[in-house]
Amino acid sequence: MSKTIIISNRLPVQLEIDKNDVIATPSVGGLATGMKSVHRDSNGLWIGWSGLVSEELTPELEEKVEKELNKNQCASVNLSQEEVNGFYFGFSNKTIWPLFHYFMEYAEFELADWEIYKTVNRKFAAVVVSNIEEGDTIWIHDYQLLVLAKYIRELRPDVSIGFFLHIPFPSYEVFRTLPWREEILEGMLGADVLGFHTYEYERHFLSSVQRILGYNIDFNTILLEDRTVKADSFPMGIDYDKFATAAKENNALRGKEKSDVQLEIDKHLSKNGETSLVLSIDRLDYTKGIPSRLLAFEYFLDKYPEFKGKVRLVMLAVPSRSNVPQYQLLKNEVDQLVGRINGKFSDIGWTPIWYFYRSLPFENLIDLYTSCEVALLTPLRDGMNLVAKEYIACREDKTGVLILSEMTGASQEMSETLLINPNNYEEVADTLKQALEMPKEEQIERNTALQKRLKRYNVERWAKDFMETLEETTKDNEQQQIKKLNADRRQRLMNDYKNSKSRILFFDYDGTLAPFEKLPESAYPKPELFDLLDKIHADPKTELVLITGRDKFTFNKWFGHKDYKLITEHGAWFKDGKKEWEMLEALTNDWFEVIIPVLERFTDRTPGSLIEEKAFSVAWHFRNTDPDLGQRRANQLKSTLQDLIANNNLEILEGDKVIEIKVSGVNKGRSACKMLLGKKHDFIFSIGDDWTDEFMFKELPENTYTVKVGLKKTIAKYYIDGTTQVRELVKDFANS
Ligand code: GDG
User: Fold this and answer.
1) What range defines the domain where residue 422 resides?
2) Is 282 in the active site?
3) pLDDT over 90 at 283, yes or no
4) Which of 315, 411, 594, 688 is most exposed by smallest CB count within 10 Å?
5) Shared domain check, 526 and 402
6) Concatenated DSSP letters for 285-338?
């Protein structure tokens, strides 16, 4: 039976050595908590690092580790202390984590750490590959394994791979500072589907791919040379029922059945009457904004002294990455702030902050969720923030107010909460007051909507959604592979070519016979291409037609001295060997004076764009503009031109990064068909890369071999990867 292999840095269980025994405890943290239920239900395998380094493992202990992991459907990647230092504490937590959370000043760029990061990702790949069986699906998680997908694909190109990033993907302006940005992106693109918590992160990722690697993007699909990759957003949910049920059971406990923590809380509440508890839970991490939260709380008590003695902040900070210096500094800062604020406000019967620096068992977490009237979650950046969702799920009677930072992924879906900017203490203080005074009816109304949504889009739905997208994308990719001009199909095509007596070949030029260049004039034909085309043309049974959107002047300069047939400007002009150019259509260009001023206005406002004036058409090129701006302006241009186009019997052609305006009805399909008149060809071939070539594919006879260059949507019968592969094909024709 095929299975899902989950891969993350840490496993859902944490192993510790106690004397000569191995003890497993559940891991804490967003990814582990969220994925645990998916793993439990999928009957799959989870691969990760056990938390123990090879130096501390004797063969006997290793066996025990293995046994413990097997019991939990897990397999481990063994790492040495040096590898953990470079890969985990180093590159993952000193480079990627701060950079991706916009803490640029904390990001260290150490070549040695990056090298170890890659080595460890390769180690993961080896363990994964040794566990893959027919039909298995791979699901990689998070920022420690950004290049793993590529390494797995190199070893197993056939396998379906998903990747989910649990932290934000930063804006291009931040990401571009990373010295190894290309390799990181290429590594991620080894997956078939890339998932992010929010559309913002997805958008940032796509923008980096476009700007740094230059790949074309079609909506949310990245067109690589030989495959496509989909990026999408899947806001991670929680195991809603687990939290709601635990809260319900917790609320039903009476007297001694309750936990010590709950009894303490109850004692405090009964002693202090009308006091409210404000909850704060996070790993002790600088992204979570704990010091600013404390300062905002201090500001609140200064600004609204009437709440002194009536409010207590219950702050759980779970120890995390304490080997990284920034985390040690943060710990000191938080300790000092708590001490100072408690010292400043406490009286005999009241201290404003209860501070726990430890991890609590699940039951106590529920105690806190159910007992606190307000949750104050103010990260400076957070990929999602599951605590926010868990708090709402635990509010059985639907009361409780959640104050949530706008900088969390969760804020995008939880608009009914009180959203704040964590850097604005004034706003945090005022919102805390609003929360503490919010009428119960309003709380219930807000939480009813939230609970409904969280229950529906729970972690199971989230995982299912991701897996379904992965399955669909894999199928689409297979479909594309089916249409690929592979060795067998190429052989058949060449046999037909050889066995035919009257052939005609239509070759598009830019993006087909020649790769795109920054400047259109740089894409001139090189001697090797002439050699091949000459060979093809020398066979009297073959008619060779170069068919282009380019202007007659340029094509005449490049190919005018040859005997090939040339069609330019999408079918406006034709040259038959050495004969003079003739017009294929009766055309005018008196409409230029209406259209060109509009194009000039757009060119002035769009740096890098340019106008190309041909005899009977005008093109606006935006290949060298900022990709977003260019596409946006192209869309604007189309709508601005709409009336002028209709009134002048014109039409717009959209090529690859070009908008062309020309007289209606002239296109490559119509002109190609004219070449067939009066002749009986038994082999017709047509190849091109962009939208304008689709006219050829559509209008040429049914038995034509139609081939699309690149993986854009097409009605052509076959796909070929890129200009390099086209060149191979042209060689085959030449040598036949
Ligand atoms: C990363 C991203 C993203 C916390 N303290 C205890 C405890 N927890 C559990 C909570 C919750 C999880 O840990 C924390 O999850 P978060 O989502 O809040 O934050 P990160 O750990 O930073 O997680 C984050 C997440 O991945 C998922 O994609 O949301 O943005 O940074 O589930 O319940 N659990 C127990 N004791 C504790 O003391 N048992």
Assistant:
1) 240-456
2) no
3) yes
4) 594
5) no
6) -GGG-HHHHHHHHHHHHHH-GGGTTTEEEEEEEE---TTSHHHHHHHHHHHHHH
Q: Does residue 573 sit in the same domain as residue 608?
A: no
Protein residues whose CB sits closer than 6 Å to any atom of ligand 1: 28-31, 33-34, 166-167, 236, 281, 283, 316, 318, 359-360, 362, 365, 382-387, 390
Under the banding of pLDDT at 50, 70 and 90, the label for residue 28 is low
Instruction: Name the domain boundary from 233, 257, 281.
Output: 233
Q: Please tell me the predicted confidence (pLDDT) of residue 257.
A: 93
Mean pLDDT, rounded, for 649-678: 92
Q: Which of 239, 367, 508, 690 is catalytic?
A: 508
Confidence check: pLDDT of 272 > 80: no
Complete edge-to-edge strand list for the sheet that includes strand 658-663: 610-613, 617-621, 658-663, 650-655
Is 44 found in the same domain as 97?
Answer: yes
Res 534 pLDDT > 70: yes
Q: What total of structural domains would you count in the chain?
A: 4
Cα(318) to ligand 1 centroid in Å equals 9
For residues 137 and 68, membership in a common domain is answered with yes
Nearby residues of 190 by Cβ (< 8 Å), 6 or more positions away: 147, 148, 149, 150, 151, 152, 153, 154, 161
Domain assignment present for residue 471? The answer is no
Q: Is residue 636 part of a domain?
A: yes
pLDDT of residue 30: 62
Q: How far is the CA of 31 from the centre of ligand 1 (A)?
A: 7
